[in-house]
Design goal:
Number of helices: 6
Strand content: under 5%
Strand order of the largest sheet: 1-2-3
Oligomer: single chain
Structural class: mainly alpha
Length: 198
């Protein structure tokens, strides 16, 4: 998968790892990701997906932190959460929201197979043990889109590793080292221009 990565992504990581700040950063990131992905959704269905996406992204914040604790890089941990989201989109037939082509789902799953197996994450069960006890809010599926999937936001050819596009436009395999200017304060009041969905 190809992600973007800059100093703000590291600031969000620090904020999520900092007691007292985490809940504010978490809420802001959930809200922002939901807005970004409902913007990619079929407008006829965007509103009805919001509560489900809020729950999904809130749960993936936990898998992101767990991946970091297990030694994955920032880019790898974030990619794990994006893969989980794409499994969920696929299961609902929300192909227009997908970031990776349908035929690359299995390859992405296999790359993080040990982590996914440890936490019971599968394509059919995107959250595994990270799913909240009450489950996620229901949202209508569009399974007919799986018959001839269109995913205008998906970029294929990046299933073998995590690829990071830097602020300067360079493509780096595996991600970048944490920069010196990762300021937690920039992660508190998130605005739309502060972060890309990837």
């Amino acid at each position: 998968m190809k992600l973007r990565q800059n100093a703000k992504h590291f600031a969000y990581r620090k904020a999520l790892e900092t007691p007292g700040v985490r809940s504010v950063a978490n809420a802001g990131l959930v809200r922002l990701h939901t807005k970004i992905f409902t913007g990619k959704a079929d407008p006829a269905h965007a509103e009805e997906r919001k509560a489900h996406l809020d729950g999904l992204f809130d749960a993936t914040m936990d898998s992101y932190l767990r991946a970091l604790q297990e030694g994955f890089s920032e880019a790898e941990a974030r990619e794990i959460t994006h893969i989980q989201a794409n499994f969920d989109f696929y299961n609902h037939g929300w192909t227009e929201m997908m970031e990776i082509p349908v035929d690359e789902l299995e390859a992405h799953h296999e790359r993080y197979g040990d982590f996914f197996e440890r936490w019971d994450i599968t394509i059919d069960d995107p959250l595994g043990q990270f799913e909240p006890p009450e489950g996620l809010p229901e949202a209508p599926s569009t399974p007919e889109k799986l018959d001839d999937p269109e995913h205008p936001h998906a970029e294929g050819g990046f299933a073998d590793d995590v690829y990071v596009e830097t602020k300067g436009g360079d493509l780096v395999v595996g991600g970048q080292d944490e920069p010196d200017d990762a300021d937690v304060s920039t992660a508190i009041d998130l605005e739309d221009e502060d972060i890309e969905a990837d």
